[in-house]
Write a structure and sequence with these properties.
By secondary structure, this protein is mainly alpha-helical. It has one domain. The chain is built from 14 helices and no strands. The chain has helices at residues 7-32, 35-43, 46-73, 80-96, 102-115, 118-146, 155-173, 180-189, 192-220, 226-239, 251-262, 267-283, 287-298, 305-317. α5 (102-115) crosses α6. It is globular, with a radius of gyration of 20 Å. The protein starts with 6 loop residues before the first helix and ends with a helix.
Amino acid sequence: MSSALPHGVRRIRPALRLAGGALVMVVLVWRFGTGPFAAAWRVTTWGSVAAALALTGLATLANAWRWRVVARALGAPLTPFGSVAAYYRSQFLNAALPGGVLGDAHRGVRHGRDAGDLGVGLRGTVWDRVTGQVVQAGLLVVALALLPTPLRPYAPVAFAGLGAVALFAWWLGRRQGAVAFVGHDLRALLRPGVAVRVVAGSCASTAGHVAVFLVAVAVVGVDATPALLVAIALAVLVGSAVPLSVAGWGPREGVTAGVFALAGLGSTTGLTVSVVFGVLAGVATVPGVLVLLADAVVRRPRPTMEEQAPALEEARRG
């Protein structure tokens, strides 16, 4: 899909993402000062870090399972251990490198090479991320519409945004040429047996990340109803998907400050919560370092397709 963009835009797109995230952070520091950032570092505890590690671990298992479901539907199955290790690696790289998506790109390329089809590997990773974010957006719409919170008036806006995404997906699915694969992939992923598992995995993953956000809220000491905090957490998760960040920082902080202000909890408090959440989410990706170290130590030659055949067949059987 990116091939439709002019060559010059494609070349500078990573720099634009980095610049966008940096600009958001500069504006936030200019508007609120360094106080919320210093306060976040003071209140973060080892107990909250341990909780974030455990909750993110559960979310990572759910994400890896969803990825396996997507990859199998596209014809490039993954093993359980390999998918979990690759997901931890990609999360750490996303958190440590500019742009917030380089880990996913590495995950897709590596999967494609291992499966003998680079295109399928990249598409599987993209669909894994896209389906997860669409489910998160759907959960946000449900939360805004059903939960008694000050954010309920914004439910129609969220619903319209989700509808626009669905309409765009339908339009892409009917295109021919360079994006003809979209329709083929959507038909594979929307089969009931696949779609139900993708939604279930996404819901479990979202629950884990919402729980980490609630840990950050508890650490800061925000007094609000559970319904409001869940709605805010879902809005932050959806807003964090905006592809303008510096190693994950930028949009998340801006969205959190804005949503807290809309909920009547104060934008400064929201920024502090977001920084704590960012620290916890970043530290929770540290197991990915172990995967990178194992990669460096083992350095085994990449197996041939004939050597991979038994493992791939086992993965297909589940």
